[in-house]
Design a protein that fits this description.
Elements (H helix, E strand, L loop, with lengths): L3 E10 L2 E6 L2 E6 L2 H4 L8 E10 L4 E6 L2 H11 L6 H10 L2 H10 L2 H4 L7 H11 L27 H11 L4 H9 L8 H14 L1
Helix pairs in contact: 2-3, 7-8, 7-9, 8-9
Length: 202
């Protein structure tokens, strides 16, 4: 089991990122909560990891904080919740926000996350009720100094669009969400952050 990676951030295209560890590139999927704290490409990065083994693939997931990984692992134990839904939950709410949602039994908030219907939201609340006290935040999100990107890159808006599609939103929904973050000069992660906040409020 790979539990931790430390290297240089080679690529970040939400929800995928690539970490160069001594010349070996590890491809990971990560929630937006982790992307918000990532350094610029080329900078050192350290991530907690969780490996999911399926018949057709081995998928490595990365997290900027141990508390995020603990929540991800706890969510995978809930009936009907797979890695994609767990990533969606972590992308739509911080660990602290999620714990408040469970304590308040806020089904409506959970059903705003793509892939979660009312029955799944009810199962998450019931099955996570006993786990919330064990999921206190621990390691701080790791961030680094900015660096200049080399070569042409997609626009922040197009990167945000692709990331939201990958998180399960439909194209018309994404177009609507991105209108709430239509402000010049915003980074990809800030656009996604604002779009997700808009989705929660909708």
């Amino acid at each position: 089991m790979i539990g931790f990676l430390k290297g240089r951030l080679a690529i970040k295209q939400p929800p995928m990122l690539l970490v160069d560890v001594n010349g070996v590139g590890y491809e990971l999927e990560a929630p937006m909560s982790t992307f918000y704290g990532l350094p610029a490409t080329g900078e050192p990065v350290a991530l907690f990891t969780h490996l999911v083994v399926r018949e057709d693939a081995h998928i490595l997931y990365g997290f900027g904080a141990e508390s995020e990984r603990r929540l991800f692992r706890a969510l995978l134990k809930v009936s009907g919740v797979g890695p994609k839904i767990a990533l969606g939950i972590l992308s739509g709410a911080s660990v602290e926000d999620f714990l408040r949602i469970i304590e308040a039994e806020d089904i409506g908030m959970l059903t705003r996350i793509p892939g979660i219907g009312r029955k799944t939201a009810e199962r998450v609340i019931i099955e996570m009720r006993d786990s919330v006290q064990k999921l206190a935040a621990s390691a701080a999100t790791m961030a680094g100094a900015p660096a200049t990107l080399v070569g042409a890159a997609p626009s922040p808006q197009s990167e945000a669009f692709a990331a939201l599609i990958a998180l399960g939103y439909k194209p018309p929904e994404v177009t609507k969400l991105l209108k709430s973050a239509d402000e010049p000069g915003l980074s990809t992660t800030e656009i996604i952050r604002r779009a997700l906040k808009s989705a929660v409020k909708a």
